[in-house]
Amino acid sequence: MTELHLWLRHEPRTTERRTPVVPSDARRLVENGVTLTVEESPQRIFPIEEYEAVGARVAPAGSWVSAPRNTVILGLKELPDEPKELTHRHIFFGHAYKGQPGASDLLRRFGAGGGALLDLEYLVDENGRRLAAFGFWAGYLGAALAVLQHRGRLVAPLTPTSKEELDKTLQPAAGDEEFSALVIGALGRSGRGARVAFSTAGIEPTCWDLPETQNLDRPALLTHDVLVNCVLATTPVPPFLREPDLDDPTRRLRTVSDVTCDVGSPLNVLPVYDRTTEWDDPVRQLSDRPPLDLIAIDNLPSLLPRESSTDFSAALLPQLLEFETGGAWGRCLDLFRTKSRELGIAVGEGELGHV
Ligand SMILES: NC(=O)c1ccc[n+]([C@@H]2O[C@H](COP(=O)([O-])OP(=O)(O)OC[C@H]3O[C@@H](n4cnc5c(N)ncnc54)[C@H](O)[C@@H]3O)[C@@H](O)[C@H]2O)c1
């Protein structure tokens, strides 16, 4: 019987309605002997009563700070700024290993408290393949928003919705002009999502992945009306779009949706803009000669909180059930220690179960 005590925390970011564990999977955890505490949260897409009904304990929002030390705290996005010393093991997306703003501060908080970050982005199998990710829904939404913008039907501000409602808006209407679309990174998780959304909208996109961009045919790229970029770049490659392409009078391309959102990174394949767009103002015009609109939203799956949480939770559940023995968590812990030490931060040597 596992002794794992898992604590599902409230997300401080007010627009974040997703959760890494949905009530039906909470039931499976409890049935398998996990002690599960779930914090109340005003915005989580699943009400607290659904967790309580499957045997979870309920705690106030933010009360993880005083949870017993051996509790594993589970969330998705950033922690609040306090406490300064983090004593627990935390599972979430830390964004702390690529020199991001605030990365070293976060690792120092773990170092100071003796806790550990088990970063969901690096929860991988022995071949380095991600075990739980939101990519499919990112691509689905990236393509859906591009379709709506291109058809003149994108309504701002964007608000979280359901797939059913979104799909209704994607149906082609009388008078809609046909257009061509290109998905790059089409074989990945988000690329697959983008293809499914296009299909719902009645569009058959051109699909490119690594082989098709090896000798990039930029003129061919520019003959598409809509581009959805879904690549996961790991080494620098020639950009898909450059500043001069914006002024190219022969360009057909009118709408770009950048799911990847590597803005500011040396790996950015779309270095033609300098900041992401937001739910309040999702589209920015990059050029008016001829027009080119950009959508670059870096929290797309949050727009479909129920569907994206349900898929993510289903992928995470088997890993949580193997928390004490699972090699994937051991790899997360090793990486946390390596990255902390690279910054000169002292970290403990405890086993996964007793950090
Ligand atoms: N905007 C958002 O809200 C959001 C959410 C989740 C993920 N993402 C980002 O989306 C990107 C893709 O994530 P994923 O989960 O789909 O990754 P993935 O690894 O499943 O797929 C990436 C695909 O890109 C392809 N690729 C890599 N380099 C390429 C190149 N130069 N040319 C053509 N194809 C190339 C790969 O072969 C692969 O098929 C990541 O950068 C991820 O951080 C964004």
Could you please describe the fold and organization of this structure?
Keywords: NAD, Oxidoreductase. Residues 7-141 form the Alanine dehydrogenase/pyridine nucleotide transhydrogenase N-terminal domain. This is Saccharopine dehydrogenase. InterPro entries: AASS (IPR051168), AlaDH/PNT_N (IPR007886), Lys1 (IPR027281), NAD(P)-bd_dom_sf (IPR036291). It comes from Streptomyces prunicolor. The strands form two sheets. Strands 3-2-1-4-5-6 form a six-stranded parallel beta sheet, with helices on both faces. Strands 8-7-9-10-12-11 form a six-stranded mixed beta sheet. It is of the alpha/beta class. The chain contains eleven helices and twelve strands. The longest helix is centred in the C-terminal third of the chain and has 17 residues, at 305-321. Helix 4 (135-150) packs parallel to helix 6 (189-200). It has two domains: 5-131 and 304-354, Rossmann fold (3-Layer(aba) Sandwich); 135-303, Rossmann fold (3-Layer(aba) Sandwich). The structure holds nicotinamide-adenine-dinucleotide. Nicotinamide-adenine-dinucleotide binds next to helix 4, helix 6 and helix 7.
